[in-house]
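Hi, here's the filled form for the chain we discussed.

Project: internal
Contact: R.S.
Residues: 143
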Amino acid sequence: MEDRKILIIKCTDPLRWYVDKVGELVPFLGDVGNEYKSREPSGCVNFVQYEDAEIVEPVNDSIKTDNSKVNAGMLARIVELEKECEALTEGLLETENNLASLQSRFEDIEAVFCDEDGCLIIEPFNGEGLSKWFKGNKLEHQN
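And the returned structure, exactly as it came back:
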């Protein structure tokens, strides 16, 4: 198996040496605990921030051909999409939890309305929505 590589997925600091290498693979020389160790094209050892990269193992030699930018770019996009999906899933779960929490808070609350004649109408809120809706200044009943 070939050596692992660092896939540059983004560059959050415009002064980093890999700012023009997004979507490309660079050598992986190690993990120093807070960044990945790599080598610049000039041969100098330098570092890549964790948040800007993923460690990958080349599937075959095609990653090292002239298509490396395309292949690495596609892989970078897949990594980004996976992270976006994770974030959306977490957000959806949080929203569902918030809705469940709100629903449980309102289960015992009664809704109070005044009809057209000024009569007070009180009904329990059953968690599925109120059966009374205001439209303009009139109260309409929905079944």
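Let me know if anything looks off before we file it.
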